[in-house]
Amino acid sequence: MFVKEEKKVTHSSSVVKAVASKALDIDSIDKDNDLAAVEYVEDMYTFYKQVENESKPLMYMQTQPEINEKMRSILIDWLVDVHFMFDLSPETLYLALNLIDRFLSLKTVQGGQLQLLGVTALLIASKYEDMWPPQVDDLACLTDGTYSNKQILVMEETILASLEWHLTVPTQYVFLVRFTKAAVSDAEVENMVHYLAELGLTHYETLKFPPSLLAASAVYTARCFLHKVPAWTDTLRFHTGYSGFELMECAKRLAFIHSRAGESKLGAVFKKYSKSERCAVAFITEESRHF
């Protein structure tokens, strides 16, 4: 079980001030780094939380007669492999999946076009986030010739027009960066956080949670798995804006997904985090949890 948290949740100014007074200054180490924008970073994340639901996908499966949750999971598993193969930035994966789910929230897609949507969304996200995005030829080859260069480019226009070129969105990754910093994470904790977050990406039901809540829950669950005490600190509560109790539903869902990861036929995320350079966190077993 997870560590029991206080059920009563309050966000009164006095409570917020009390939590803030106990929180660590996580930005002091970056005070001389102009790129860290320490003067504005708290305001930036306050804004991100205010607007995150504007770019949050709807629960759309009931409007997709030819697509189901399993097909979405297979697509994302494949995209995780493609993303890893091209060594793209982490931001690219999260943005690509946001584009896919937002598009599916708006448009009905035939089952045979789902991979086309996925590979094109990855192309768009990589153009936005990476210095050297993959070439269209390379992506077309990865589909075993199922889609031509022209089809990918036409789909690119369709996605961008449907989403009105709205690409600057606070994805879960935006919050993961801030919240892992607030957790003062070592390499093992940080990799476990990202492992849990990426496992969550492959499961449709996690779309119901806001990106910031998913990110905070990944941090909380990782700290429970790795016996960090306390599991949820005043610093984390201040910088995430969530109490441990508010994270419980999502954290339990991530823990359940994790418990099935090693048995799943869709193993891209498990394989990725089984590597030594990622602290082999995928091998941390159910029995080693501490909730």
From TrEMBL:
Taxonomically, the superkingdom here is: Eukaryota
Q: Which InterPro entries match?
A: Cyclin, Cyclin-like_dom, Cyclin-like_sf, Cyclin_A/B-like, Cyclin_C-dom, Cyclin_N, Cyclins_cyclin-box
Q: Which UniProt keywords apply?
A: Cell cycle, Cell division, Cyclin
Gene3D superfamilies in alphabetical order: Cyclin-like
Q: Name one GO biological process term.
A: cell division
Which segments constitute the Cyclin C-terminal domain? 170-287
Q: Report the residue ranges that make up the Cyclin-like domain in this protein.
A: 77-161, 174-256
Q: Which GO terms describe its molecular function?
A: cyclin-dependent protein serine/threonine kinase regulator activity
UniProt similarity note: Belongs to the cyclin family. Cyclin AB subfamily.
- PANTHER family reported in the protein's UniProt record: CYCLINS (PTHR10177)
**Identification of the protein by name:** Uncharacterized protein
Q: Can you name the source organism?
A: Microthlaspi erraticum
